[in-house]
Amino acid sequence: MVDVPGPRPARAVRLRPVGDGELELQYRVVHGYRRAFRMAGAGPALVLIHGIGDSSDTWAGLIPDLARTHTVIAPDLLGHGASDKPRADYSVAAYANGVRDLLTSLGIESATLVGHSLGGGVAMQFAYQFPERTERLILVSAGGVGREVNPVLRLVSLPGAHLVLSTLRLPGMRLQVGLAVRLMRLLDTDLGQDAPELLTLVDALPDETSRNAFIRTLRAVVDWRGQVVTMLDRCYLTEGMPTMLLWGDRDSVVPVRHAYGAHEAMPGSRLEIFEGAGHFPFHTDPARFVALVEEFTATTAPADWSRESWRELLRAGRPGTAAGQPDTARSRAVERDLREASERSAT
Question: What domain of life does the UniProt record list for this protein's source (predicted)?
Answer without folding.
Answer: Bacteria
